[in-house]
Amino acid sequence: MADKLQLPPLQALVVFEAAARLGNFTAAGNELGLSQPAVSQRIQALESRLNAPLFERRHRGVQLTEAGHSLYLIVRSSLNDISEQLERTRRKRNVLRIDTDMGFASYWLLPRMERLQALIPGVEVQVTTSPNDYNFRDSNADLAIYFGQGNWPATQTQRLFPEVVFPVCNQEIKQALGQHNRAEALLSHPLLKLPETHPQRWITWEDWFHQQQIYGQSHSASRTFNAYSLVIQAALEGQGIALGWQPLITPFIQNQQLVQCGQQVRTERGYYLISASNKPASVQQEKIKAWLLDEAWGFHEQATPISVI
């Protein structure tokens, strides 16, 4: 009979991994559905068992000690192996998972789900979303669609849509702006935006104004939302002017709920179709990849000319 493994409670290792990865006990608790004291208690119990500190407690978070870093590498690798094995088991249940962000899922993917599902009858399609940048090591998805530069390690990427952006507003604000769409006129209305990211992940209002040769603008009435769906909802309600990303904004333009009220700009960033480079694709994955690329091509064929940064 094999010897019993000398392990601490597995939940303590899961809590430790989350705290080490996020660098914050509160954030780890939020991810795992635990309170900050509960996270701290499990970490302390693990440190007592090992008779070694795993974290340096700091004012704005925690940092791994040398012993903590060594343990994290092992725990992270082991949990990833478990996750991948569970994923292999899941694949046998005829499930295809697509990871993306909430904006793309809501405004582009979900309206096409019936056609996507028809390509792979009998396969359960799962769509999961995250506000964070794509991380191959943390993803168990068969396919992913994320916004960025297309340079994620250990992946194959194909760009579906470039970053094409222009200001949008509802009909009432459009009438107030007049017919000339002067960029300076936008500053007389609240600017709706997403939080800034470091490094920068997408065009900001400052970038857009720079393209219009307007610098150093100050706008205290700006409103920031942590989800793009909230930005668009605020624009629909006439709370201000938003930056609209194609193809997410296209349905609102087509039904005239929102109208373009400024020049388009484009970058080399965009939405990319992502798959693992070290795993053979299934027949179902290849069907969905080909369909997604065809859908994106159809959109480009219908798109109007755009100005380039």
From TrEMBL:
Record's keyword terms, sorted = DNA-binding, Transcription, Transcription regulation
Output the superkingdom of the source species.
Bacteria
Question: Which SUPFAM superfamilies does UniProt cross-reference here?
Answer: Periplasmic binding protein-like II, Winged helix' DNA-binding domain
Which part of the chain is the HTH lysR-type domain?
8-65
MF term (GO), any: DNA binding
Keyword Transcription annotated: yes
Q: Which Pfam families match?
A: HTH_1 (PF00126), LysR_substrate (PF03466)
The text of the family note is:
Belongs to the LysR transcriptional regulatory family.
Q: What is this protein called?
A: Putative choline sulfate-utilization transcription factor
Q: Which organism is it from?
A: Kosakonia oryzendophytica
